[in-house]
Amino acid sequence: MFLQPRAAGPGRRAAQPASPLLFSGALQLAPLLVVPLLLVPLLATPAAAHHLMETFALKEGPLAGLLSGIGHPLLGPDHLLFLLALGLVGLVQRLRWVLALLAVGLTATGLGLMLPALPGAEALVALSLVVVGLVVIQRLPVWTLLPAFALHGFVLSDAVSGWQLASVVWYLLGLLISQGALLWLALTLVQRWRAGLAPARLMLAAGVLIGVGSTFAWSALVP
Predict the structure, then answer these.
(1) Which structural domain, as residue segments, surrounds residue 99?
(2) Residue 43 in domain
(3) What is the pLDDT of residues 171-215, one digit of tens each?
(4) Would 157 be classed as within a structural domain?
(5) Rounded to two decimals, what is the model's pTM?
(6) 8 Å CB contact between 52 and 58
């Protein structure tokens, strides 16, 4: 639960105007808020198969698998925003949970190759952003991120459906590199900005995530 400011009483000085440090902290948080807002137009349309093979006309093989695994989370705005937003969770949870997320995600990708497609996957992926926002403000337990990350991993299997095992292994390696690097970047930036991330600003960032996720889910459900 976030702490609320105490009201001024007898013998206590009235609240002072916001200091320059407050505005400095807001500027530090700005990238976390601006990026989601810039992605709204992209998230308002159904997710495409963000596939480097299509972009560079690559043929299936180890190189195509590795590059596709690295590029897929970067080119998918829903996946990218989800991974970056997880950096905020690092403020309320130990870093070791990242390893659990990566393991769950890769396992889900492997299962996705053996199971049928999940109905309404686009809307569910969008709602994972809502889950992150609720975890950040401690309205949901942190373990709910495990099924959310598994959902992303499951959906990422669509890009390599029907591939040979060797190419799939390279794709999984690429996903591990890409997702691990993005999580490390997000966690590192948030830890550096930690002093300026007051509860009110975290609440604002969580609200943006919830709004973006809800908007994308609505656009996926309503043609």
Answers:
(1) 59-221
(2) no
(3) 999 999 999 999 888 888 887 776 666 778 788 888 888 998 898
(4) yes
(5) 0.73
(6) yes
